Amino acid sequence: MTSSGRPRKGEIDRAILDAFAVLVEERGYARVSVEDVVRRAGSNKPAFYRRFRDLASVVPRLLEDRHGLDSDIDTGSLVGDLCEIQRRQVRLFSDRAIARGLVGWAAHVEGRPEQAVPFVDAYLAPRRAFTHVVLARAVTRGEISDDSDPDWIADLLTGPLLMRITLPGLPPVTEALGVQTVHAALDAVRFRGDRSALAAGTLVHTRPEEDQA
To answer: CA quadruple 68, 132, 84, 23: dihedral positive or negative?
Structure first.
């Protein structure tokens, strides 16, 4: 028997995120309004504003919902961790809704720094903080020295991918680009270990014990 009551909280959240993603992919961020989102979601403005302060605050939720925060990554090696981070970032920046949403969102919040706070606090800061975790684990394993700059490594990993979706006329984000950024990050931390997993030009990597199985 099917119930016919009001949608549950999780269902409304899901409907709003899905509606926002579809509309951004169709129109671009600048041409989407709250009215558009709630109409497509089959919801209403009060329900939207109970969950989000504005459209800008939907972006970090959509990013986390579709692509996570990376905090679960632990492959047992620096190369493996960086490969997995970039595998996910390539997927993220190849997501048309995310790519169009980020570019439009950045233009929208340029003169409204307060609207960037949810993105920075809920999405950007945790991801950048995780770079510190990855490098600290590599130091403990003896893979690198402890004088690396995690924030610079985060920039090296994300910057080239972000540039590809921001500037017109550039090639798309590809796995090969992801491999190049991993090499750049390894060079920056003066990694002298085994990079053979990157020789195939892919971001697939196994745990060390699986390599020996």
So the answer is: positive
Three-state DSSP at 40 gives helix
Find all residues with CB under 8 Å of 135, minimum gap 6, and list them: 78, 144, 148, 150, 153, 189
The per-residue pLDDT for range 109-161, each reduced to its tens digit, is: 888 888 888 888 988 999 999 999 999 999 999 999 999 999 999 999 999 99
> What's the burial of 58, exposed, middle or buried (CB within 10 Å: 0-12/13-18/19+)?
buried
Domain containing 47: what range? 9-52
CATH number assigned to the domain comprising residue 201: 1.10.357.10
- Say whether both 48 and 79 belong to one domain: no
- Residues 77 and 17 sit within 8 Å (Cβ to Cβ): no
- pLDDT of residue 209 exceeding 70: no
Burial 83-121 (b: 16+ CB within 10 A, else e): bbbbbbbbbbbbbebbbbbbbbbeebbeeeeebbebbee
CA 86 – CA 178 distance, rounded (Å): 6
Residue 1 lies inside a defined structural domain of this protein: no
Q: How far apart are CA 31 and CA 115, in angstroms?
A: 17
